[in-house]
Amino acid sequence: MSKKSPTIFILKYRALGDSIMGLSTITYLRSIYPNSKIYYGVRDWTAALYERVETDADQVIPVKFDSFSDFRRMWKLFNLLGVDHIHELHLSGRTKRFCKLYSMLTKAKYTFHNHHLDAKGMQVHDQGVLKPLIQRDLDGAYTFLGENKDIPNYLDFEPRFKNLKVTSDFSIIFGVVATRQTKMWALENFVKLANKIKESFPHYNIKVPLSNSNQDKSIREKLSKLDKGNHLEYIIEPLAELPEIIGAADLYIGNDTGLKHLAISTGIKSYTFFGPEPPNEWHPYDEKRHPYFYIEPLECRTRTAHYCGLSECESMICLDNIQVEKVFEQVNQDLRNV
Fold first, then answer.
1. What b/e string do you get for 48-62 counting C-beta neighbours within 10 Å, with b at 16 or more?
2. 188-197 confidence digits (pLDDT tens)
3. Residues 335, 172: Cα–Cα separation, whole Å
4. What does the pLDDT look like over 175-190, one tens digit per residue?
5. In sequence order, what are the residues at sequence separation of 6 or more whose Cβ sits closer than 8 angstroms to the Cβ of residue 34?
6. Does domain 171-337 have CATH number 3.90.550.10?
């Protein structure tokens, strides 16, 4: 493999937010290998997000490993691209089987980082150390592709879409969804916050991106009943449309979910509500540019691990103690300065 310009395939077979955070590693590798072909493989359903935006990858490629025909298609694609080095940012059992076989039969190098393993038997820099997720991705890429350069710092590689040209439309994005109920600030709180914002800043539109899933339909129904002032505008658009819609906003306010990472990648400021999971790992961003609300310490959060993994919780003390008044107090200054 040529050290000057290898053809590199970075693979992150995970959810939407994880794929966005992986852009940081793509940018880091582009800084080392400016003349290389660098491809970024993401789960097939997330790939639509990248259809109309530029990244530091030569191409963002949808990948799928659900069947033998998927394996065969990916094999042909890797051969067509002339891949020299496959690096997986966060190991998946399904992808590992394919990549190991491809590496063995074609001599392409295959490396990976498993965030969940301890340091035993692993050569990745600081393996097993709890760090911001982007930093862990960078540590893996640095170990296997770093060319003996300095260890990258996650604050220097915030994920960002390139050349995204949008103009402020005086809107605020509310991120009301999440992967589980325990990560969701109460819908009633979002409506109360919307009322306060519209009372002081009536020219702002408050947009709520949602999908057509049954869960999101249920959320919309509940919000519509709560929103007596009709202050919320629901955005149900394909993934490819979201970067421009969100990038035109002035703020993201919401849960820790893929939508938050998308907002940050467009360059807008964010405020995030953290409940069961600590921000030091799941919020790999500059806290001044992207502040968050987090109640600590809470013994229940760390009873079985370094975070709470419950999908449902009766008390919701972690998020219910984040008061609407406190949130408005902080975002109020930002809106006055726009």
1. bbbeebebbbbebbe
2. 999 999 999 9
3. 10
4. 999 999 999 999 999 9
5. none
6. no
CB–CB of 112/87 below 8 Å? yes
pLDDT at 1: 44
Report the pLDDT averaged over residues 49-54: 97
Q: Do domains 8-156 and 171-337 have the same CATH topology?
A: yes
**3-class SS at 76?**
helix
Residue 60 tokens, joined: 């963002």
DSSP 119: S
Q: Which CATH superfamily is domain 8-156 in?
A: Glycogen Phosphorylase B; (3.40.50.2000)
pTM over 0.85: yes
**What pLDDT score does 93 carry?**
79
Q: Which residue has the tokens 């869960």?
A: 215
| Amino acid letter, 133 | L
Q: 3-class DSSP state for residue 171?
A: strand
Q: Which of helix, strand or coil describes residue 277?
A: coil
Distance CA 23, CA 157 (A): 9
Q: Can you tell me the distance from the alpha carbon of 137 to that of 282, in angstroms, rounded to the nearest whole number?
A: 12
